[in-house]
Every structure is written in C-alpha cells, then in structure tokens.
Amino acid sequence: MTLPRATELPIGAVVTEPGSTRRYSTAGWRTLKPVIHDDKCVRCQLCWLYCPEGTIAEVRGVFKVGGRSYDVKYEIIYDHCKGCGICANECPTKAIEMVPEAP
Amino acid sequence: MQIQKTRKIEALTSNYAVAYAVKAADVDVIAVYPITPQTTIVEKLSEFVANGELNAELIHVESEHSALSAVVGASAAGARVFTATSSQGLELAHEVLHIASGMRLPIVMAVPTRAVSAPISIHNDYGDVMNARDVGWVIYIAASAQEVYDTVIQAYRLAERALLPVIVAYDGFLMSHTVEPVELNDEEEVRKFLPRTPRPYTLNPRRPVTMGPLTSPDWYYEFKYQQVLALQEAYKIAKDVDAEYSRAFGRGYGVVEAYRMEDADYAIVTYGGTAYGNAKAAADLARERGIAAGVVRIRLYRPFPTADVLKAISGVKALAVLDRAIMFGGPAEGPLYRDLATAMYMSGLDKPAVNVIHGIGQRTMYVEDLYKIYTMLREGPRKEAVFMGVRI
Ligand code: SF4
Ligand code: SF4
Asked: What's the pTM?
C-alpha cells in the first residue's frame, strides 16, 4: 500500500471530497503486515478471537489443504489490519508471519 | 508600486499603530476581548467600526479562547481576520494556537507582551509570547511604534502567502502605551499591497470541504511535516515581503537588525523595543569608553533567522544574549539564548556566549547595566547565566 507524501497532501489537512469516509482505511500506519500460511493453520480460531480490530475473516467453504479438508479458512482484511502482530504472537503453530509493508 | 508622496504623521501608541494598520489592511472580522495591556487596540478598532471608517464584523467574545476560535472560524470561511491578546489571555488561547497553525489559517494577532502569573503582574516582559514560540506561528518582535505599524501590514502579506498565522509582538506598556510619531501609509496603497488572493480551501457550500478533521497515524505526521516546511519557507517569504514593503513604502527592517556591528568585538543580541534601545545607548557609551561594542536585534523570531544572526555575529570575540523571559529548568533560562546556542552548535560556530536575563516583570533596565555587560564580556568567558537586576 502506498500513501501520498507530505508534499502531496492538501494544505492544512483539508478533506476535499465529501463522503470520503466510505473508503476509510485504518491500515495506513502499518509497517509490518500479517500473512497467513494456510498449510500450517490448524483452524484453532485463536487469531480470529484475539485480533483487536476484528479484521480477520472467517470464510466458510470447502478447503483442501495438503490432503486434509476444512470447512473454514482465516483471511486478513488488509484495509483495517493495523499491523499490531497480536495474531502472529497468539498463533500456536506459527502459521502467521509478519512481513514488511511495501514502502 | 510607487513610494508614497504624501506623508501623514500621527502621534500614536504602538497599540493605536496596530489599529491603524488593521484598518488599512481592510480586515473583515475582528474578535475582541480586553486584557491589559492589549485593550486599547480593540477599543480603537471598535471606534473605527462604530464610525463607519472600517467595514468589519466585530465579535464580542467571552474569553481569549473564544476570540481566537472565532477568528479561526472566520478565517476558515475566507475572511481576513484580526485579534489581539496578552499574557494570561495568550495562555488561555494556547490550545487554539495549535489549531490555527495546524489548519494553516492566515490569522494576524497582535501581542503587546506582558509577564505571566503567578504572582500577577500586568507589567512587561516576554514570558507570554515565549511560551508560544514553538506552536507553528510566525512571530515578529517589533521595536518601535512605526515598526509595529509596518509589521502588521507585512504580517498580512506573509500570512496569506505562506498560509501561516502570525503574531506581531512588542513591549507591553513600554511601547503599547507610549506615544511616538508614526508615518501612516495611504490606505489605498496598502490595499494594493495586500490584494485579496483566493485561498486553496475555504468553507463554501458550493464546494464543500472538511477543515480540521480527525487524522489517524497514517496522516498526522505528514501534516506536521508540512508545517515544518511552511515555517522554513516563511523565512524566505518574510525577507521578500520586507523588501517589497520597503520598495512600496520606503521603510524596511530586514529580519535581523545590526547596530554598530561592522567592527564590533563584543555584541549584545536581544529583542523588543526597550532592550534594543537601551542596548544601543549602552553600545554608544561603551564605544566612548574604548570598547568596540555592537547590538543585534532579532526582529523575526519564528522562523528563527539562523543564517542572518550568525552572519551578524560572525566577527565578534564574545557575545551576550539578553533575554526578557525566564523559561524554567532548561540548560539555560533564556529562550533566545537557547535558540542561539543551538544555532551556533548546529553550524559549528564556537563563540563564548553568556545568557543575561533582565527586565523581568518590567524591572527597570538602566543603560549602565547593559554597559556592564560589555565590560563583563571583555573580562573573559563565563558559563553561568546572569540574572541582572534581581536582588540575590
Ligand atoms: S496484525 Fe493485529 S490487527 Fe492485523 S490481523 Fe493481526 S491481530 Fe488483527
Ligand atoms: S491462530 Fe494460527 S492456527 Fe489458529 S486459526 Fe489463526 S492462523 Fe490458524
């Protein structure tokens, strides 16, 4: 995710577009982002439970991973993940890796 | 622009000089709340508005916090605005100082300076404005009623070009209530000097914008950095505006004023009317007595005119920084001293410099006192600050 530089922003923090909060993302201050390696995930639900932003989605479906079949999968909603790393810390199988955000 | 032919000289206090400059600048909105020693500015402006000499909206508010808030709102709507305060009033408005500069509003505010409580003092020093020196406003400190008049007009041009609020400060009572001859510009000429230029954003129902919004950590830092750049840019703009003003009206001051500095061995660096006047008299006295003495006055205090000050003092053997404010608990108590020491350190200039505090709460400063600073400098370097004029 790339954001505008200081010199590219409207002077005085003016919001020039009415209704722009519809597109409001709270992810811009993230420097590391969580990436779920689905092959290591055992579906324990801990990341989903602990994420303080409620930004991990529990997706229903049929998911075949390495010979096993699951009816659920966890995905990060990157527009709202603030990069706190709690999910990676709590994951018992170290399935979540924190990787640097693109500059 | 032509240098004016007709000379109109009035006997004015610095406060009245402000009011005449504000009238010449044709402001739209003025917020008034009286506080000593600022009151006579808004009294005079009320008179101008009541007499129909100035077509402005005069808002009577219930505090200085409201006064600055009112002009923040009016300025956001695109009006040319003015307010004034001093001492506790400036402290009460402190929160809004940050809002005005963060929203990049070209507000002009006069501050005849006054000591801050407790204990209560209505008399002069620079404790109030020095508390507001790092809030993103441009700060001028003028040294005569004429300069006050000229600076308020310059302030509008700088404010509207840099999109920054500007304080014009000067000695309370010692200047705000004493009368000097002031040459007034032709008002039409001033209005030509201050054209109404459209601002990038104003409150306008046809082009809706949100001003002063909430930002999250992904935006705030960048806007604060914009202010850093704006203040840096304002240094150059202030010099340009002074040069343009001097071409238009025949009077200019620069950002730093030097007196007998060409061949000076010892310098006093200071700000404000009384300190500068007395220091100049002390330099004359010192020269009669065989000391090559000079004075440097900081006129533009924020942004700090580092390059110009360092150039002015580059030839001296030692200098004293005369402060008229105490900032408690720092590595030195004088605010200007701290600025100058930082400027010297960052540019690698190593001059013996002593911090002298004087004139606190309008303690009388004698020319002989300031002469003693030159003899002290000649005797050799000293590290500790000098609290001159205090009973220890
Ligand atoms: S890094 Fe923090 S905010 Fe982002 S998904 Fe993990 S727990 Fe939620
Ligand atoms: S905590 Fe780790 S193992 Fe558990 S559901 Fe989340 S990613 Fe999968």
From this structure: 0.91
